[in-house]
Amino acid sequence: MGVICVLPARLSSTRIPRKPLQEIAGRALIEWAWRAARRVKEFDRVVIATDSPEVGSAARGFSAEVVMTRPEHRSGTDRVEEAAVKLGAGDRDVVVNFQADEPFVDPPTVAAAVRAASEAGDAGPEIVTLAAPIRDRHEWASPGVVKIARAPDGRVLYFSRSGIPHVREGEPVFGGRDPVFLRHIGVYACRRPALGRWAGLPESRLEALEKLEQLRALEAGMRIRVQVGPATEPGIDLPADLERAERVLTG
Questions:
Q1: How many Å apart are CA 87 and CA 180, to the nearest integer?
Q2: pLDDT tops 80 at residue 107
Q3: Is residue 80 classed exposed, middle or buried when 0-12, 13-18 and 19+ CB atoms within 10 A define those classes?
Q4: pLDDT value for 122
Q5: C-alpha pair distances (Å), 190 with each of 6, 71, 77, 96
Q6: How many distinct helices (H) and strands (E) make up the chain?
Q7: Rounded mean pLDDT of 72-93?
Q8: What is the C-alpha to C-alpha distance for residues 151 and 157, in angstroms, rounded to an integer?
Q9: 113 and 189 in contact (C-beta within 8 Å)?
């Protein structure tokens, strides 16, 4: 069994034009994400999957392995699935979809998710993803921050751009030893068959509303578990995040 990490990257982002190639502290965003993935020792292979010759050329410039994929993919999951096929991933291999806008991921948390996906039996999770505690009300209320509602055993109940869980009385309290308010991190570890099933599903109603591809899997009944790590800087979703990342990476 091997572990293949794939970073899906496209240039046609709607919120940040040419997002993977946006320069932050002297490097392209895609390079920062690739370097973060390379710090995870459990990965046997780290690959950038793109339909853009420009992204491919930039990635090869910092010595990344590149897989060219079709341009019509509707989500990163579909692009990762094509890359997994081209790379010859087998049924026992773990494929990790590592979103190319997550340069601040905590490597030990990623490693724990990979181990959970590797060790999952037939009744275990089909997909293991990541989360970090939400730090303040601004993060909780921002539609650019995806939130997770989870069961005590780590099962994901829902993903949303809205502030969940909703607090009917009083104010949300962030932090604590067992945080309730969690920010989703765009990393998914799963065995090759689960990835193929996910990518083969039609777009779901909730996915179309929230623009969150993970809801396609959840709505179809796929079992998703969340691995909670320490508080980290959020990924890059909105233009203001570029300035924040610049401050963090040069600080």
A1: 38
A2: yes
A3: buried
A4: 76
A5: 12, 24, 11, 6
A6: 9, 11
A7: 94
A8: 7
A9: yes
- Give the helix, strand, coil percentages of the chain, each rounded to 5: 35, 25, 45
CA distances from 205 to 145, 184, 201 (A): 20, 20, 12
- Cα distances (angstroms) measured from residue 115 to each of 2, 38, 41, 52, 206: 11, 17, 12, 32, 29
Domain 3-250: CATH class, spelled out: alpha beta
Range with top average pLDDT, 2-6, 143-147, 167-171? 2-6
Contacts of 170 (CB under 8 A, 6+ apart): none
Per the structure block, which two tokens stand in for 224?
Answer: 């998703």
Quick one: tokens of 91?
């049924």
Q: What per-residue confidence (pLDDT) applies to 7? A: 98
Q: Which residues contact 72 (CB under 8 A, 6 or more apart)?
A: none
Query: Of 161, 143, 46, 31, which is closest to residue 98 (Cα–Cα)?
Result: 46
Q: Which two tokens stand for residue 173?
A: 């309290």
| Rounded distance between C-alpha atoms, residue 21 and residue 164, angstroms | 32
Query: Where exactly are the structural domains of the chain?
Result: 3-250
CB 5 within 8 A of CB 40: yes
Tell me the CA distances in angstroms from 158 to 25, 114, 144, 216, 217, one per residue in order.
35, 21, 16, 11, 11
Tens digit of each residue's pLDDT (9 = 90 or more) over 11-40: 877 778 899 999 999 999 999 999 999 999
Average pLDDT over residues 173-179: 88
| Res 251 pLDDT > 80 | no
Pairwise CA distance, residues 224 & 24, whole Å: 32
- Which pair of structure tokens corresponds to residue 169? 């009385």
